[in-house]
Amino acid sequence: xxxxxxxxxxxxxxAAQPLAILPLEGASESGGLYRQLIAGLDAAAVPxxxxxxMTLEEARVSFSCFDEGPGCMSQIGQVIDAxxxxxxxxxxxxxxxxLTFRFLDVERSAMIREVDLVCLATEGALSKxxxxxxxxxxxxxxxxxxxxxxxxxxxPPQAAVQLDGVDVGRTPLLLNPTxxxxxxxxxxxxLTPKTLDVEVGARVKQITVALDAPTSAALSPxxxxxPPPPRRSGLFxxxxxxxxxxxxxLGLSAFFGLEVLDLQSQAEGMRxxxxxxxxxxxxxxxxxxxxxxxxxxxxxxxxxxxxxxSINAAE
Length: 315
Prior knowledge:
Blueprint: H1 2-15, E1 19-21, E2 25-26, H2 30-43, H3 56-63, H4 70-79, E3 84-93, E4 96-105, E5 110-120, H5 125-137, E6 150-155, E7 160-163, E8 166-170, E9 173-175, E10 180-187, E11 194-200, E12 205-210, H6 216-219, H7 234-268, H8 276-314
Parallel strand pairs: 1-3, 2-3, 6-12
Antiparallel strand pairs: 3-4, 4-5, 6-9, 7-8, 7-10, 10-11
Helix pairs in contact: 2-5, 7-8
């Protein structure tokens, strides 16, 4: 009886493997990562369905799961007799590996985990991602520095980073902020800090911020300050006014001088007893007086202007 019960329990356990991971899609290295993941599950003694022949693309087409929604993906899990289903994509973002992984409770049609794992594409990076996935399917958190949606670099590296006013570490740095716009501030000793707003969405984003040296004026405390603009006092504007009056007076003197010459020319063609000569003589005298007054005004205004300019420059 006990032997029969034990055999039945073994059969049930063999018939219903709780975990199935679909082959990872994306980069050519995804196949190797998938095999590392299955080997890691074996090493951790996690019951699973082993290597699954059905690819994610085949599952989407067969079950019309183009949005990969929980309800539709649960049908795939039921077909392959799994109570939990995992799938994901491996992609390359410049020199980063980005692994997007989804983990589903088939019986409840509810997501268990949705993670974005990011690491530099260095030697051993895929092994690191595989080990992180083995932990995730066992309910463990992702290792520090692997889960996130915003990868921040700086030139030079090791710049201090603030996210929304909170110190979060030094570059290169992977952050996992909530979707939306966030403010980053990067600083490095001896360099000018930079602040920028970054929008974080559903996909992993990386930014590189170049920190520049301060300007030469900021580096040299002994550099001469920029001289203030010259002061425009009342004396200055008085001098300008005097120069303007002198210029206008010279113009008037030239005008009256031309009139004097014209009247003189008209008088030379008349007889001495011509009554019109008296009128011309009166106009001639007025024009000559205008010339003299204009010249005197120009001279006085010019002298005043020079004096005011000199006093203003000496202050």
